[in-house]
Each structure stands twice: as structure tokens, then as C-alpha cells.
Amino acid sequence: MSTSATDGNSATTTATQSPEPTTAGATPATVMGIEAIHELLPHRYPFALVDRIIEYVPGDRAVGLKNVTFNEPHFQGHFPGRPVMPGVLIVEAMAQVGGIILSQLPDIPRGLWMFAGIDGVKFRRPVVPGDQLVMTAKLLSVKRKRFAKIEATATVDGELAVEGSFMFGFVD
């Protein structure tokens, strides 16, 4: 997983206010479609794994959606007759939601955030075609503007599918 940093002004987004505050009184400021996501993340098919951002609090958290369809190439071999989304791709999708947060941190120049580590990932249920993954990423820390830690979950129909923490390193 990697993501490009930007000044936060280049992505086209549609502002949507939530009636209820989320973290520490912050309100989700932005909903992003695929075009805005592609401006912030370098991933493209078949590794663009976030279809929409439905909640975003800059510098804090993001919630993204991944619509899982049988047409995705990994289902041809994983597993024939019983398609299951590979766990590593679920983790990648969760990290890409985290990348949305990292791509717009203030005072960090344009560059690339890449995976540096994964901790405590647990797979709780299979994800299959027809499921919609709801991935929530929360920024835990940024150190020396070069290292970041994000905690993330992925749910299907409100049931926990995957959870874990991800470390990222900034590459200029």
C-alpha cells in the first residue's frame, strides 16, 4: 500500500455534513467518489480497492467502501467453486483507506507513504462476492513526519471481518 501526499486542495470532493459529531467533536467533512480517491492514491485497477469514502475527518479518521464483485480477477483462482476475497487484499483495502488520511496531513510535502509493518491482524469472517466491506481507519500517531500508525477495521453487514494496525513510512 502506498499513497501520494498532496496539499489537500487538488482533490475534487463533495462536502457533506453529518448531523452527529464523531471523534472529539469533529464532524465528517467530506465524502469522496472514485475520481477524488484517484487524485489522492496512486493505485489503479486491479489494485484500486476503495470505491468510495463515506466519512472523512481530516487528520483523524476515514470510512471507505469496497464493493466486492465476482468479476474481480482474484476470484478466478481463490477458490474455484467457493470464491473468497484474499485476506491480503482486504488488508490492502484497509490500508488504502488509511492512505486517504495520510495523503492530506498538514505540513508534510508531496511524497509517497508505504507499508512499513502490520501488527495484530485478525481475520474474523470470510469476505465473498456480493459483500460490501466498510473499512474504518483511525490515525493513531505520526512521528517525525516520516512514520505513521493507523488502526483499522473492516466489517460486512456490521460484523467484524478483519482488524489490525498498520505502520507506514514516508518516502520522498
Structure, described:
This protein has 172 residues and is mainly beta. It has one domain: Roll (Thiol Ester Dehydrase, Chain A). The protein has two helices and nine strands. The strands form two sheets. The chain has a seven-stranded antiparallel sheet, with helices on one face. β8 and β9 form a beta hairpin. It is globular and about 50 Å long. The two termini are 15 Å apart. Involved in unsaturated fatty acids biosynthesis. Catalyzes the dehydration of short chain beta-hydroxyacyl-ACPs and long chain saturated and unsaturated beta-hydroxyacyl-ACPs.
**Low-confidence sequence ranges:** 4-26
CATH-defined topology: Thiol Ester Dehydrase, Chain A
Outline the biggest β-sheet: 7 strands, antiparallel
The structural domain count equals: 1
**Can you name the CATH architecture?**
Roll
Estimated helix fraction: 10-25%
**The CATH fourth-level homologous superfamily:** Hotdog Thioesterase
Structural class: mainly beta
Distance between the termini: 15 Å
Give the integer mean of the pLDDT values.
87
